[in-house]
From TrEMBL:
<feature type="domain" description="Sushi">
    <location>
        <begin position="1"/>
        <end position="40"/>
    </location>
</feature>
<dbReference type="InterPro" id="IPR000436">
    <property type="entry name" value="Sushi_SCR_CCP_dom"/>
</dbReference>
<dbReference type="InterPro" id="IPR000742">
    <property type="entry name" value="EGF"/>
</dbReference>
<feature type="disulfide bond">
    <location>
        <begin position="60"/>
        <end position="69"/>
    </location>
</feature>
<feature type="domain" description="EGF-like">
    <location>
        <begin position="39"/>
        <end position="70"/>
    </location>
</feature>
<keyword id="KW-0768">Sushi</keyword>
<protein>
    <recommendedName>
        <fullName>Sushi, von Willebrand factor type A, EGF and pentraxin domain-containing protein 1</fullName>
    </recommendedName>
</protein>
<keyword id="KW-1015">Disulfide bond</keyword>
<keyword id="KW-0245">EGF-like domain</keyword>
<feature type="disulfide bond">
    <location>
        <begin position="42"/>
        <end position="52"/>
    </location>
</feature>
Length: 184
């Protein structure tokens, strides 16, 4: 009996011989009671607790990425961009990179390029660097700013909470907070 390519017996061998004894097939090896299943082998091997699935494909623990689970998922944490809006991220099929689409919350826009609705950033786990390396900033749309100034005309260094749970802060820095983050 022989394992198919990419698989081995638990001892690392790829083939074994059987003999017929009293009408039953038995392995010739005395240390085997029965022929064990062939197991997948990955070359290079999976790292950091990854499990070889066969065909040199590893199933990585949640905190690792890469074809051999060799990169920490935290190396491409989207929070490293310091973006103050919404984002949606997904890894490529080979788990070598993370692609994130950044978008400002409703009522806000990108400060430098207000006509752009989303910004795409890709991080390779090998380098831990996003491209482009910095995220745009979200600022309140002027019409939203006017509305808040109308509601809170004397809002210098004051804090107000809206019915949706967002927290707005008016101060000398012009920052606005929302759901634990800072906008502006």
């Amino acid at each position: 009996i022989q394992c198919i390519e990419g698989y081995v017996f638990p001892d690392g061998s790829t083939a074994t011989e059987l003999h017929c004894k009293e009408g039953e097939w038995e392995p010739l090896r005395r240390d085997w009671v029965a022929v064990p299943d062939c197991q997948p082998v990955c070359i290079p091997p999976c790292q950091n607790g990854g499990i070889c699935l066969g065909m040199n494909s590893c199933q990585c623990p949640q905190e690792f990425r890469g074809s051999q689970c060799q990169y920490s998922a935290s190396s491409c944490d989207v929070r490293n961009l310091g973006f103050n809006g919404n984002y949606k991220c997904s890894s490529d099929s080979g788990m070598e990179s993370l692609e994130c689409t950044l978008k400002c919350p409703e009522g806000m826009k990108f400060a430098q390029e207000p006509e752009i609705v989303t910004s795409r950033h890709v991080c390779t786990y090998a380098s831990g660097q996003f491209d482009p390396p910095s995220a745009p900033r979200c600022v309140f749309d002027k019409s939203e700013d006017l509305l808040l100034n109308y509601i809170f005309p004397d809002a210098s260094n004051q804090s107000h909470e809206s019915h949706q749970g967002y927290h707005y802060y008016y101060g000398h820095g012009g920052s606005y907070g929302g759901h634990g983050g800072r906008y502006g």
